Please model this.
Amino acid sequence: GAGVSQTPSNKVTEKGKYVELRCDPISGHTALYWYRQSLGQGPEFLIYFQGTGAADDSGLPNDRFFAVRPEGSVSTLKIQRTERGDSAVYLCASSPTLNNEQFFGPGTRLTVL
Amino acid sequence: GQQLNQSPQSMFIQEGEDVSMNCTSSSIFNTWLWYKQDPGEGPVLLIALYKAGELTSNGRLTAQFGITRKDSFLNISASIPSDVGIYFCAGGVPNAGGTSYGKLTFGQGTILTVHP
Model:
């Protein structure tokens, strides 16, 4: 079956611009996670949804970052007033409820010039 | 916050050799997972461990959940060229309500190179 998909695969933007990154989880997975991966590092947790609600957003670095999942399936990560330090690969993962086996998408590589 | 220390940072081995890598933490985790990441791809789940002391195999891969719940190791036997990639350990804890698992904390990764 289809895995987690993310669009776009690459996004280049200018400092100060607004970007949206989309994640389509595996069908039937109720939990959805966003991570950020800088070069040479492991993924770092940003936010996690159980259904439509954000169950834990403790990893969002500041209020420029926001994520939604209005219908409990597709999620959008929104970054306002992008900064060069936001450049990274943004990974989305999903899992069935009640276990930690998270399945990752290919990521969106964000470059802020 | 929680941190995972993964070692070694990189390994260069000959095809056919066995590989061992490990992960340690100052905090307790309820689950340990091992992922492999290829360039330009997301991490792929290899093995998930849920009980202290658990030893689980997946083909040539074997992983163990340390008895203290603060460490885990991954072994790869008889390495082949397609084992090349970055291996990450990850630890998970349940959410505040204990009803489901939330964020994973990842190690820094072990870069594995296999020479034919």
